[in-house]
Specification:
With 179 residues, this protein is of the alpha+beta class. It contains five helices and ten strands. A four-stranded mixed beta sheet has the order 7-4-6-9, with no helix packed on it. It has a three-stranded antiparallel beta sheet with strand order 1-2-3. Strands 5-10-8 form a three-stranded antiparallel beta sheet, with no helix packed on it. It starts with 7 loop residues before the first helix and ends with a helix. About 5% of the residues have low confidence.
Amino acid sequence: MKNRALDHNALYHALKKEVFHASILDLEIDGVVEKVLLRDFQVHAYKQLVLHADFQRVDPNHKIHVKVPLHFINADISPAVKLHAAVISHVMVEMEISCLPGDLPEFISVDLTKLDAGQSLHVKDIALPAGVTAIIHGENQTVAIAMVPAGAAAAEAEATPAPAAAAPAAAAAKPAEKK
């Protein structure tokens, strides 16, 4: 197959944008516009130079397999963060999906509103756009975990004494005051 030339600056700047990696693109080849998907690219180790880019033609009637980024939303209002000062770890940052080219989402939103401390969110828990199917390798994969840091849990336990322990200490202090 022949090598084709692209506008280097436009390609270099487009590669910096997340949407470019998960979009169906129009690529003109010998005067004919083809629908393509970026599959791979190579950049120079230390120069701002794109060395190579691979594109795949897509048929609008056949499903494609592609990885799309995950955008985590509502972490600040989840019970894990708001009530328990938990840290949410993103186990996955992209998800492999199957869909028709016309249904390809720019990203998938992962809503963390109901995530509580000690819980995890799995692929089956994510609401996918219409026409999109997650490709799961193995068991139901974990997407995010909410965990309370060990130091924070110990500090919280020290800061709030148990109510049963506080009552005897107060009773023992009263007789000492009457003397």
